[in-house]
Amino acid sequence: MVLEDRNEVLSVMFSAVSTDATPTFWTAIGQYVPIGGFGMYAENSIDLSGYAMEDLTFATFETMYQDPGIYSNTDPSGSAPGAATKLEVVELITDVPLSRTEITAALTSLGTTAPGLPGSTQDFTQVIYGNYRLYVSNNTLGLPGYMQMIQSNGFGSKEPTASARLYCYRLVLCETPNPGDILSLPACRVGLSGRMFREDELPYMMRLKRSYELRQLS
Question: Which residues of the chain have pLDDT under 50?
């Protein structure tokens, strides 16, 4: 059966995590991997191989971010605020996988630049979706360790892609926790709303060539 042009919503989910701090890193569990000083990341992917076999391209029109939970940093008992002063979280969807070195570089440059922007090692076109958020401790609301979002910025190219797989990341960096402090993040979902379509042969082949070149450089 030949697939025709159609509207699609591609989505990816990241699980919730509750993890405690050692003197130098988070003891992340499940989907999350500790990296750097009090950083961690999770990986997922969106399989587009069926569409790629039909030579279809996906163009993103709109993006969505769903996050119904609470971000918190508490002391070891979970009943009082922890020592963390700042929490940064980024979700990314790219059509080229990021190496651990690139993930580390992205974490250490949060708040200054982001993948695909000047100062990063990624090409802007390969970062289809990006969402950065900054949280700070707010202990005036009666909720121990509540981290309140004070800034949110979207970035990403929404560039059409003919890749067989999209690579999805959630990067987390927390500042100045004490050993034993507990960091809790809710689950979230990221969605790309767009259209699968069949483009002319030349632009399609050029898109595949560009994707291949970027993959070799990653």
Answer: 1, 216
Placement of tokens 């960096």 in the chain: 173
Q: Tens digit of pLDDT for each residue in 8-29?
A: 999 999 999 999 999 999 998 8
Query: Residues 26, 174: contact at Cβ < 8 Å?
Result: yes
Taking the C-alpha atoms of residue 135 and residue 112, their distance in angstroms, rounded to an integer, is 15
Neighbour-count burial of 185, counting CB atoms closer than 10 A to its CB (0-12 exposed, 13-18 middle, 19+ buried): buried
Global model pTM greater than 0.85: yes
Q: How many CB atoms lie within 10 A of CB 109?
A: 14
Q: HSE-up of 179 (CA within 13 Å, CB side)?
A: 3
Q: How many helices (H) and strands (E) are present in the chain, helices listed first?
A: 3, 12
Compute the chain's Rg from CA coordinates. 19
